[in-house]
Design a protein that fits this description.
689 residues, alpha+beta, 20 helices, elongated, 64% helix
Amino acid sequence: MRNSSLYPKLAMQNIRNNRKFYLPYILSLLGDVAAMYIMSALVKDPGAKDIVPGRPNGYMYVSIFMNMGMIIAFLFSTIFVCYINGFLIKQRKKELGLYNILGMGKSHIAIVLVMETLYIGLLGIGGGIMTGLALHKLFSLFLHQMLGMPVPFGFYISWASMAQTAVLFAILLGFTLLLNLNKVRVSKPIELLHGSSVGEREPKTRLLMTLLGVVSLGGGYYVAITTRTGIDAIVTYFLAVGLVIIGTYCLFTAVSIFILKTLRKNKAFYYKTGHFIGISGMLYRMKQNAVGLANICILCTMVMVMLSGTLSLYLGTADVVKEQYPGDININVSYYPQPLAGEEEDWSLFDPDAMLAAQAGFIEGQGYRIENARTSYSLGFGTGKVSDGVYTTDRFNDAAKGVVMMTVITEDNYTATTGETLNLAPGEVAAYGVKGDTLTIRWTVDQVGTELGESSFPIVKHLSRNPAFNPDITELATIVVADNETIYDVWARQAEAYPGNSSSMRWFACLNVDATEEELVALQDCYYTAIEDSSFYEGTGSWLRSSWNLRSEGEASAYGLAGGFLFLGIFLGFIFLLATVLIIYYKQISEGYEDKDRFEIMQKVGLSHSQVKRSIHSQILMVFFLPIVVASIHILFDFNMVEKLLTMFYIHNTAITAMCTLGTVLVFFVAYGIVYLLTARTYYKIVER
């Protein structure tokens, strides 16, 4: 053992002989390293910071999402690499034990393991960084296209990202090496020799674990389907996810055993060649098998939720931009239609016509033509829901069952937005989010309780979609009234109910201008300079605040956010999908080697090749598609919560979310079926040798 060249040669020979195990491991490590480098380089690329002057949101989103992705990817890589390393060391215990029996001391085995880790690090980390360098520009193009931003020129190499990635994964491989060395240190040669063939005892049916699983899963499902608003979803999402994960592990471990034992008791089913072999083999390894299946189920759920949610956000952004920025230039003015206490002397009535004339005069004065203009009014204020159709402005009293954000718009605004005419008579309303035939608002002084009367409106139509553009932070109710007089009356009543804290009216104007995007940006700069002169707004009356927004900037910001989420979803989804495939692959190889001797004996006593193949498919089909089926059930119950989370980004299109979810599930089923065919073939080749 004094030949120092022996250990490197032996380590390389071991990797070559076990390439069926090590090649997928090295490739997965290479992929993780490449992903980490690409995300880090996208953040550090200096060309991305200044590609759109005056609009830092795009680069801000790149920085936020890529940093978030790096944290998630490395944490997951740590778990995944440790999982595969545990499988590899188990498969090689017999080989390492044989070395020990043939005269190699544990220190010599340790040197071999160190050399193997160095080779794996050079191939995985070095190859990953080279792959990342090659693919960085492609992913940069893909990301910036999603964000609606031009791609930085040139080919960028981030030495800092290379060093950061190499150090992180070197530490990770060093940690797995320490785990392996410790296993060798505490193991006896005979234990190493037989370590890979130690079987599982027949597990017992655990009623307590079954009950815990049912309660946890039921609790997670209940939280998901009863979530009413976006803020509720944010607060309870991780609670629901935690309960579902606990329930999944418990049910796969406990219920699967119960089902297998029930099938074993059915003699007509059990005493058939394929069923007998499959059920008996799975039952004695079910503890290990169940954990693996639960891992696969959870990973499948993560991938489908991530991809369907981010795809829904991206595809729904077109509606968001259309609703929030209907014109090239969008002007918002908040104002009070009546003076508040103590402001009578300085107050004058806001004149929307004068405001529109001032804005139009400025634009036309700069040499641009306004193609069309549209104005509207709206009012929003908080209420407490007492019962179906009954609300109170004393929203936090004991009688209120929850806070509801109420928005009031005119029929003209509704028609301009939807193209639908309601023909409302004075006093009538159309309503979204309100049950019953009548809407009643009890005007009660907030936190005081003084009754100021009530207003009742007959509901002539219930709207299926919210015509107002609001994030679903709380429960929403939107009321369409016949005219502006009704809105002003409602405003006056709520101003009495909320003394010192009343909501303002909102006047909105959208203008389409015959100008390019660059000209509109220059026009906006001129506008900000012009309003520094106090005479600009002369004659428009009293108002609280005003904003001037370009659709092009709003669109860039919206797609920057949605594109960043989608890119991260695809990126991490691919990593999780790769992990799912590799876990299935290693699981099938592990079980194939465990079953090999058993099938060899059965073939020697007369079991034909066709019977072996049928029994293999019977065993795999019994459990292989169970994780994806359970994951699909998780997705079904999770749909409501994902939809509510999307409303926080102003996405209210249920049809798009449903189509994205269904499409993701169907595509994933196809991919999962392909994995099944490949792994079943690998398993069959192993056990039939």
